[in-house]
Amino acid sequence: MSDDLLVDESEALVGVDSELRSMVVGVAQHAARLDKALADLVPEFSRSYLQQLLVQGLVSLNGKPTSKASARVKAGDQLVLEMRPTLQSQAFRPESMVIDVVYEDAHLLVVNKPAGLVVHPAPGNWSGTLLNGLLARDEKALLVPRAGIVHRLDKDTSGLMVVARDRATMDALVTLIAERKVKRQYVAMAHGGWTGPKSRSVEAPIGRDPRNRLRMAVVDLALHAGKSARTDVLCLEASEHGCWVQCTLHTGRTHQIRVHMASLRHPLVGDSLYGGAPLGGMQRQALHAYRLAFVHPMTGNALEFHAPVPGDMRQALSFWGLGYNAP
Fold first, then answer.
1. How many angstroms separate the CA atoms of 135 and 234, rounded?
2. Which residues are catalytic?
3. Per-residue pLDDT, 8
4. N or C: which end of the chain has fewer CB within 10 A?
5. CB–CB of 198/234 below 8 Å?
6. What does the alpha-carbon distance between residue 48 and residue 39 come to, in Å, rounded to a whole number?
């Protein structure tokens, strides 16, 4: 997390209600780290919450604001906490937004997520997420963990997602996904002319890239932590510069399609994290979840949905003369 981001988050909370809590470091906390002393002295709050107060400069030690968790305290030191709601604690709140709902019944809904929308609150995106919009759209979402979200798409990936509207449906959908009974297909635009068979099955475990912790990578499970992953790739069209492919997920690992395509030496257009480059106005990774199919866990009906390819991807495809087989 950057220093600029920390400043922005702190400023976002100016003006909210706060409470000052004063305390004296006791003998039991003498020579302890500041964060450990706080956890002892304010046991009713989580260490995570207290660390957020530290990061935002809301803790004073002997009259001076401090954000250094590792600072050592002495018996008799004066501590003052400014107890404010943090951005994280305020993240799960309703925010009105337009949501493209493809299907809805009493148990679930299917949404077509646009590129650029974050699915779930996280550092740097504590508001304006799909979860916030779901909470505002449906009061039932307040009663379901994570507002019913059972799977995610990356911020810059567009397309279909299923969301539960009650706990029983959520549990059932989680089971269907774990049993690989929810069919998820994507289309993607990738660099490099396609060679070899049109259909390939990539079975390669994925874990944190040992050389760059911000990325995922295909890993050797004998040397690094990871999980098995399988993606079936079908080339729909190709030119000498790139290809238009359909990807079928059999597992749901973080960045799975992006990592597997890069491992084939076909990084996605616009995916700078895995070796892709912008093209034809496409600045995000050219990945779209266009098909979602499953048996409704409550009614038993077979459901299948399709989402048209977004305009930015169609424009980029035309740059290479592709897209005639766009679903």
1. 37
2. 154
3. 27
4. N
5. yes
6. 9
Residue type, 137: R
pLDDT value for 48:
77
In this structure, are strands 206-208 and 216-218 parallel, antiparallel, or unpaired?
antiparallel
Nearest residue to 262 via CA among 191, 157, 312, 209: 191
Q: Which helix H or strand E contains 50, and what residues bound it?
A: helix 47-55
CA 10/CA 5 separation, integer angstroms: 9
> In this structure, are residues 283 and 277 in contact, taking their beta carbons and an 8 Å threshold?
no
What are the structure tokens assigned to 123, written together?
């550092």
Alpha-carbon distance of 209 to 247, in angstroms, equals 22
Task: Residue 253: name the closest of 184, 316, 170 by CA.
Answer: 184
10-19, 80-89, 250-259: least confident range: 10-19
The backbone torsions φ and ψ at residue 253, rounded to the nearest 5 degrees and listed phi first, read -80, 155
CA distance 80 to 53: 11
Location of structure tokens 């990578």 = 217
Choose among 314, 259, 239: nearest CA to 247.
259
Residues 59, 51 contacting (CB under 8 angstroms): no
What's the one-letter identity of residue 310? P
d(CA 206, CA 219): 6
pLDDT for 327 equals 67
Measured in whole angstroms, the distance separating CA 97 from the mean position of its chain's CA atoms is 18
* DSSP secondary structure of 120-140: S-BTTBSSSSHHHHHHHH-GG
Helix axes 47-55, 34-41, angle to 10 degrees: 130
pLDDT tens, 26-54?
Answer: 999 999 999 999 989 988 777 777 888 89
**CA dihedral sign of residues 76, 29, 21, 85:** positive
Alpha-carbon distance values, 251 to 140, 290, 302 (Å): 29, 17, 21
Q: Cβ contacts of residue 28 below 8 Å, gap of 6+?
A: 40
